[in-house]
Every structure is written in structure tokens, then in C-alpha cells.
Design brief:
Blueprint: E1 4-7, E2 14-17, H1 27-40, E3 42-45, H2 52-59, E4 87-90, H3 104-109, E5 128-135, E6 143-147, H4 148-154, H5 157-163, E7 167-170, H6 172-177, H7 186-191, E8 195-198, E9 200-202, E10 209-211, E11 217-220, H8 225-239, E12 245-248, E13 255-259, E14 263-267, E15 278-284, H9 293-300
Parallel strand pairs: 2-3
Antiparallel strand pairs: 1-2, 3-13, 4-15, 5-13, 5-15, 6-12, 6-14, 7-8, 7-11, 9-10
């Protein structure tokens, strides 16, 4: 059965049929899937009951995998629940118990409910994210995606000219600061050191431009903080209007791949003190920074 894509949103997102991710795929099949990601931005695979090892193996077809948690999490290595390449997007501790309501780890993870792009706080931001649903809550816990290419295309020309070439500063210090985190350890401050990213990205595979927005942004280089944050808030409100957003209602064993180079996403709330949401993510590393050459010199000015 051939791999087929059925678009389920006017701008982006497709459901995929004709592939079983529990079995190895060929390089030709991997290329078909990557072409599908480039075209649709988000791909939904239903009924994929896979192991962590199978998920990681499938993910490697698209590039090198990031090692999560080294510089982006407060969870210590001894407390990790999953393997080296699996990001734990759950509300469980190593003993498979729901995190306590006042747990610092739980509070830190609430930042996933802000609109963001994975690993935008790394100097080389990520390429793809692959999220597998193992246990889903009865109510809530959806994931929303925003098409940042469609949002950019819909901007007026004056705004496009205004934001072209702007450089933003991204850090977990900013997104977690919005939650009320103000006391970070010296190690966390060093790990969360801000990086620079362009506000407008160019998608090399498609030639399209997109907004590169995220809750991790704290300022625009060369702008006063209040003015910058007002513009960023306005752009985020515009880019997350209903016509640009898809809400994925998870079923057990769904796997969703999204392109961080052209989408933003967030988790929706659920009762995380009584219900389990066990989600496991592999992340394909990006290939190049967004800020290079003259732009890097401008950022340092």
C-alpha cells in the first residue's frame, strides 16, 4: 500500500496512511515522508503502537537526534524516566507516579502550554519533532499547531518590511520567567544563556518565509524591551488566529511529526494532578543557525 497524505486543514497538516512505523522503512519511504513534512508542516500517523527504540530509529531517517535535557531542563540525570534520546513530555516521575502539585518539575513543564518552537533556545534550532502518545487524558491535553508560513504570507507589506532582518533573543529564562520562575541556580543561568534567532526564517526546502516566534523570546536586539514585547505579542496574536491553527485531539498511539522551521505549538491544559499524559518526543537537530555573518555582527552590536 503506497504512502498517502490527506490534508485536513486549509493551510497545513495531513494525515498519513500506508505506513507501519513499528517496522523498518526504506530510504525511499523516508524521503516521501520528509517531502510530506516539507509540504504540510505537520503529519499525523494514527495507530502507531511503537517502542521508544522504534521511534528513535524512525526519527534518525531525518537527521541527527538531539539529546534532551542537557541544557534545557531542571530534571537531573538520575531522575530521568526515559532513555538518552527521548524527551519526557509527561506528568510522571521516574517511579511512574504523577508529579506532585507543588513539584518544581511540574511547574517548569507548564511552560509547554505557551506557544513556542522546540529548541529555539539553542543556537542551532531543531528541525523536526516527533511526539508519540502512549497514555492520553480523558479530557483536555490536546496540542495546537500554528502555521507560521501562512501567518507570514497574510501580513501586510509594511509589517513584512518592518520585521525583515530583526534578530530576537531566545532563552528558557524568558519563557519560565513568565510562569513566575525568578530564582534560577548558577548552573541553570549558565545553561539557559540567551541565543540569537532571526524573526523571519527562510525555509530552504520550500523557499517560503515564516515567522519565528516563541515564548522563549525576551527581546529584539536594538529595541527597547517594552516596544519589542508589544510587537511580539501582536505578531503572536495574529499568527495564532483560528484560521492558522490546528488542534490535535490525541488518541492512544498517535504519532505526530511537525516542522519547527515553519510551525509553533503548545499543549492544552488538563487535570495534570489526577490524570496521566504520557507523551514521548524525539527531536531531529537543525543543520544551521538562523543568525550568521553580518546578522551575528549586528546582534553583538
Amino acid at each position: 500500500m503506497p504512502i498517502e497524505f490527506h490534508q485536513i486543514h486549509p493551510h497545513f497538516v495531513a494525515e498519513v496512511s500506508g505506513v507501519d512505523l513499528s517496522a523498518p522503512i526504506t530510504s525511499e519511504e523516508a524521503q516521501i515522508i520528509e517531502d510530506g513534512i516539507n509540504q504540510h508542516g505537520v503529519l499525523v500517523f494514527r495507530e502507531q503502537n511503537i517502542s521508544d527504540e522504534q521511534q528513535a530509529s524512525f526519527s534518525r531517517h531525518f537527521g541527527k537526534l538531539e539529546v534532551p535535557g542537557l541544557k534545557s531542563n531542571i530534571t537531573k540525570a538520575k531522575d530521568r524516566r526515559l532513555g538518552k534520546y527521548m524527551a519526557d513530555i509527561s506528568n510522571l516521575d521516574r517511579g511512574q507516579n504523577i508529579l506532585a502539585g507543588d513539584s518544581r518539575q511540574r511547574m517548569f513543564n507548564l511552560g509547554n502550554r505557551f506557544w513556542h518552537s522546540d529548541s529555539s533556545y539553542r543556537s542551532v534550532p531543531s528541525k523536526f519533532s516527533l511526539l508519540s502518545a502512549r497514555v492520553v487524558p480523558h479530557h483536555g491535553g490536546e496540542t495546537q499547531f500554528a502555521d507560521m508560513c501562512a501567518a507570514y504570507d497574510a501580513l501586510d507589506e509594511k509589517t513584512k518590511r518592518e520585521i525583515d532582518g530583526l534578530i530576537c533573543e531566545h532563552s528558557l529564562l524568558y519563557s519560565r520567567g513568565r510562569l513566575g520562575f525568578g530564582e534560577f541556580t548558577k548552573e541553570e543561568k549558565a545553561n539557559f544563556k540567551p541565543v540569537h534567532q532571526t524573526l523571519v526564517r527562510h525555509h530552504r526546502a520550500t523557499g517560503r518565509r515564516s515567522l519565528f516566534l516563541s515564548a522563549h523570546i525576551g527581546r529584539i536586539v536594538g529595541w527597547s524591551t517594552p516596544v519589542a514585547r508589544v510587537l511580539l505579542e501582536e505578531l503572536t496574536e495574529f499568527a495564532t488566529r483560528p484560521e492558522f491553527v490546528y488542534t490535535h485531539r490525541w488518541r492512544p498511539f498517535d504519532l505526530v511529526i511537525w516542522d519547527n522551521r515553519r510551525t509553533m505549538h503548545r499543549a492544552c491544559r488538563f487535570d495534570d494532578t489526577t490524570e496521566v499524559r504520557d507523551m514521548r518526543r524525539t527531536t531531529v537537530a537543525g543543520e544551521t543557525p538562523t543568525v550568521t555573518g553580518q546578522l551575528e555582527e549586528l546582534a553583538r552590536a
